[in-house]
Amino acid sequence: PRPAHLPNKSMNASRPLRKLPRTAIRSTINLRDRLFRAQSLNQAGRTPFEVIYRDDILQLRYYPAAPQGRGSASTPRPAEKRTPLLIVPPLAVNMLIYDLFEQRSLVRDLRDHGFALYLLDWGRPGRRHDQWHLDDYIRRLLPAAVAQVRAHSKQDDLSLHGWSLGAVMASSYAALDPQIRNLVLLGPPCDYHAQGGVNWQNRLFSRQMRRLQALTGFRPHATRKRWWRAPGWANSMAFKLASPAGTIRGYAELLGRLHDRDYVSGHATHGAFLDDMVAYPGGVMQDIAQYLLTDNILARGELPLRECDARLQQVQANLLILAGTQDPIVPVASSRRLLDLVGSVDKQLIEVPGGHMSIVSGSRAPQAVWPVMRQWLEARSD
Question: For the whole prediction, is pTM greater than 0.90?
Answer without folding.
Answer: no
